[in-house]
Amino acid sequence: MQAHLFADPDSLGRYLAEKLLAGIAAAQLAGRPYLLGCPSGRTPKPVYAQMAAQLARAPQDISGLVLVMMDEYVVPGTHGEHANAPADAHFSCHRFARDDIADLLNAGLPQAWQLKPENIWFPDPASAADYDAKIAAAGGVDYFILASGAGDGHVAFNPPGSAQDSGSRVVTLAEQTRRDNLLTFPDFRDVSEVPRHGVSVGVGTIAAAKEAGMLLLGSGKREAYRRITTASGYDADWPATVIHLIGQGEILADQAAAQGEAS
């Protein structure tokens, strides 16, 4: 699978934003929802920013958009069960979906055209496996935005060793994943503050998407770029190689991640 290279994150963001907004418009015209698989964190921010910029220039109805969020940190609940991290926590993926995706896209759109709060989905740690059935019942994910962990290749919260057919579930976060997330959520003072568990879509959940893009941005993702572009298929030691399981998958990287390779 050849990588599509871009000069910088904004260029990549513009490319994917145009593609996604066109897909959302086509689904809206057909009277069906558009399911967009979304990560939180640094990597997808240029895409969300460019979608917002394009919506500001040319408003369109995104009320049929469904955000299929990939994961969330979980913490011990009142009775010792797994519970979602508090929605106002700095590391909450619920907070990210609200503040850094929904509010950004909705700004300036009339209310009837806005992304609806009920269309922001997350797996429930109490019944994580039900998430896959919910996605399938809605027609499947139209496009999954993906990112690779820099240090261990995790995708969503799937740690190295995750099975190709794994579904949505509560996982123990790999130590390297927790260290990678110190950069994703810089208000963590050290790794001891990063939760040890998360609820996540599985590798199989991602592989079932109709289309997907693996985004690799910055010099910190050079090893991820190398591992993914040289893989011949899914490698459980680097779960982000899931992109090779998706028929309409694409690797999207900036020059910094690709170490200056020609486009």
Q: Counting H and I runs of at least 4 residues, what is the number of helices?
A: 7
| Largest sheet: spatial strand order | 1-11-10-7-2-3-6
Biggest sheet, open or closed, and with what strands and sense? 7 strands, parallel
Proper CATH architecture: 3-Layer(aba) Sandwich
Helix content: 25-40%
Arithmetic mean of pLDDT: 93
Give the topology string: H per helix, E per strand: EHEHEEEHEHEEHEHEHE
CATH topology: Rossmann fold
> In percent, how much strand structure appears in the residues?
15-25%
- Quick one: overall form? globular
Q: What count of structural domains?
A: 1
Low-confidence stretches: none
Radius of gyration: 17 Å
What distance separates the N and C termini?
14 Å
According to CATH, what is the class?
A: Alpha Beta
The counted number of beta strands is 11
Describe the secondary structure blueprint for this structure.
Elements: E1 3-6, H1 9-30, E2 34-38, H2 45-57, E3 65-69, E4 71-76, E5 82-84, H3 93-106, E6 120-121, H4 130-137, E7 143-147, E8 169-172, H5 175-184, E9 197-200, H6 203-207, E10 211-216, H7 222-230, E11 248-254
Parallel strand pairs: 1-11, 2-3, 2-7, 3-6, 7-10, 10-11
Antiparallel strand pairs: 4-5, 4-9, 8-9
Helix pairs in contact: 1-2, 2-3
What does this structure look like?
With 263 residues, the protein is of the alpha/beta class. It has a single domain, classed as Rossmann fold (3-Layer(aba) Sandwich). Helix content is 31%, strand content 19%. The chain has helices at 9-30, 45-57, 93-106, 130-137, 175-184, 203-207, 222-230; strands at residues 3-6, 34-38, 65-69, 71-76, 82-84, 120-121, 143-147, 169-172, 197-200, 211-216, 248-254.
